[in-house]
Amino acid sequence: MPAKDRSRRPWSARRVPAALAAALILLAAGALLFEAIWVRTGHRATAWRPTLTEQLATRTLGNLWVLTGAAVAAALGLWLVILALTPGLRHHLPLRVPADDHGQMRAVLERKGAALLLRDAAMRVPGVSTAHVRVRRRRVTVRAGAGFRDTADVKDDLTDTLRHEEHDQLALAHPPRLRVRVRRSTK
């Protein structure tokens, strides 16, 4: 029984959203702390504090501004939770972990690089004059133009070559499904 594949897509650092959230929270907390210290040391409250406390005390939960603020806060919170729970880096494809490595090594291949490797392999197939490869997480779509051979033979050879290239050269942890279309080339 083969060992379970432990290769996963790496998680992105998400530095920009985390930095923005931290900066906004730090700014708001700093302003409230400064105001609290300012008032406790005997100074008069700044103009925004009495206005804000009065507005918060007089507005009901059904008020449009309160509901809008709550919706914005909930949307931002949901966005941050989604960012925290999803791996990101969707343009990277994880590679297989060697059997003797015990999962200590991780490597990825960008989709564009995988598409270029598969396109080059497709162009080496006899009879293929043009090839366009699109790599997604779960599917590789290849559109090829056959120049001088029967399209069914070119499709069979192209499918075999791409499966071999995908398995041996790319070494993807989760090989995507292969979809090959061959048409007679117009050039």
| Count of separate DSSP helical elements | 5
The total of beta strands comes to: 5
The strands making up the biggest β-sheet line up spatially as: 3-4-5
What is the string of SSEs from the N terminus onward?
A: HHHEEHEEHE
Unreliable residue stretches = none
Average pLDDT reading:
84
Q: Judging from the principal axes of the Cα atoms, what is the shape?
A: elongated
In whole angstroms, the N-to-C terminal distance is 50 Å
Description:
By secondary structure, this protein is an alpha+beta fold. It is built from five helices and five strands. The protein has helices at residues 15-40, 48-58, 64-85, 111-123, 151-170, and strands spanning 92-94, 108-110, 128-135, 139-146, 177-184. The strands form two sheets. It has a three-stranded mixed sheet with strand order 3-4-5. A hairpin with a 3-residue loop joins strand 3 (128-135) and strand 4. Helix 4 (111-123) packs across helix 5. The radius of gyration is 28 Å and the shape is elongated. The model has no long low-confidence stretch (mean pLDDT 84).
